[in-house]
Amino acid sequence: MSGHELRRRGRICFPSVRTPSIRQHCRKIGFCHGVCRLFEYMMGRTRWIAVRVDFGRRLHDGDMQWLTIRSETQNSDVAETFTLSIFAFPRQSPIMSESAQFLFVCCQIGAEKTCKQEILNRYPGLKFAFSRSGFLTFKAVDTSIRPGSFQLVSTFARLWGWSLGKTNSSDTTELAKNVAAQIETLAGDKPFTMLHCWQRDLTMPGKNGFEPGISPVAETAGQILLEAIQPRLPGLRLNRPSKRGELTICVVLIESDEWWVGWHDSAMIAQSWPGGVPQFELPPKLASRAWLKVHEAVLWGQIPIEKGDVVAEIGSAPGGAAQYMLERGATVIAIDPAEMDPSVAEHPSLTHVRRRARDVPKRDLMNVRWLVVDVNMPPSYTLEVIRDYIETRKLDIRGVIATLKLPDWKLAAEVDQYRQQFVNMGFPVVRTRQLAFNRQELCVVALRKRFERRTLKSNKFKKPRRQEAVSSGDSLPENVDVPPQGA
Ligand SMILES: C[S@@+](CC[C@H](N)C(=O)[O-])C[C@H]1O[C@@H](n2cnc3c(N)ncnc32)[C@H](O)[C@@H]1O
After folding, report:
1. Peptide bond into 205 cis (omega under 30)
2. Residue 128 pLDDT
């Protein structure tokens, strides 16, 4: 069996053995996402087809697997048909089985309905299964939705992963033991090296001082879990940001006596953060919560704001976002008729223009590279202001970070249209996400081009041609544009 470990035997029938149909079928059953190379060879009188399976991204060396398929000819008058038997299974996915797969999704408290609708509209192959405040699960009824070949793209999902179900007990040690047993079955010899354990949100971010993140309860539970699981997985670390591709066990504390267990492969930026919430070292005083929002937006959107860059912020008072930009070494033009926090207003690299956005003359906007917009107005107004700056004033900027307020959740249905408007303004890379630190609003990052980590320092920048279609979805993995629809 060419050295492959035999895990499963399946039979697949093809109408013909033409390469595209095999490729298509392999994709359908979740074996390959991107590139799929086929090689045919004979061994004795049997014909073998080797399929090189590429999971769409190179996570680690072990990702590339050879899947060997035997084909047997069954001649018929009409067409040649082949029965293919799968003899090997990619070792990359730790729990790839023929049994049903479930996804878990964490979102903001209050956004469950919106998040559920968005996912069901986008993925007909998913069926809603279960929800609690800030937590949803879906059953993958389409067999192509499988680990290794699927990435969920969603604006309102803060984090997603593969769900293994829940465990109930009023005793924390018992819960930890149950999870450890579940992980033991799941892990086999698979390289899980990270454990993320967090509590679902208790309320809307910013309400009564609540902010998402690792609560003391989750910290304690995580330590107990770590002790329970570590004998099996000695290298396991707790609640550190996972590296891209790192297999991560997720434990969500839904109630004190109900924990949900899942895992993901940290392919998306938000998956590297426990619970999809980035961890920051906070400055001694925040001028406003907007510091958290814009910091998360910059990390998630991979926005290369550099020292000396000029940032114009529309809706800048009292000044949390400006404070963050100043900390990064940017020069800030703060546009807001309202008063700025003195600690920010007095900074030598900040100019406060005390006017409404439309009353700011172009001469006050010299050399602006980035536009941050956070006005407490409906999205239609915010988009009009941005269009005015980009199209009428012809600001030659690299990108926009905009907060779109959703005074009514129904506006969430317009997200694709909002994205298209940015594309029409000449931003081919548009990402939307309800940030962990957003309230009833969402963040749009619109860029003139995709910035990659290794080119962050480059000053070369060309304005692209206007694009026709929305080029990119939501919280995407780095260097991956649009995952196949429904895949
Ligand atoms: C949510 S607050 C902004 C918070 C701010 N980004 C921070 O970092 O603290 C919204 C601000 O938008 C301002 N605003 C509303 N309409 C505006 C307009 N047309 N031009 C400029 N500012 C506006 C309001 O005065 C208010 O201070």
Report:
1. no
2. 97
Asked whether 67 and 54 are in contact (CB, 8 A), the reply is: no
User: By alpha-carbon position, which residue is closest to atom 23 of ligand 1?
Assistant: 315
pTM comes to 0.77
Measured from the CB, is residue 242 less than 6 Å from ligand 1?
no
How confident is the prediction for the chain on average, in pLDDT?
79
Domains of the chain by range and CATH? Answer: 10-86 (no CATH), 101-276 (3.30.2130.30), 290-455 (3.40.50.150)
| Best residue for ligand 1 mutational test, from 298, 375, 440 (most atoms within 8 Å of Cβ) | 375
Question: Per residue in 288-306, pLDDT tens?
Answer: 999 999 999 999 999 999 9
Q: Which of 313, 316, 353 to mutate to test the pocket of ligand 1 (most atoms within 8 A of CB)?
A: 316
Residue nearest to atom 27 of ligand 1 (CA): 317
CB distance 286 to ligand 1 below 6 Å: no
Does the pLDDT value for residue 197 go beyond 50? yes
pLDDT tens digits for range 135-178: 999 999 998 898 888 999 999 999 999 998 999 999 999 999 99
Please give the order of strands across the beta sheet that includes 368-373: 350-353, 331-335, 310-314, 368-373, 399-405, 441-447, 429-433
d(CA 339, CA 240): 38
**Main-chain phi, psi angles of 455, to 5 degrees:** -105, 10
Q: Is 355 in the pocket of ligand 1 (CB under 6 A)?
A: no
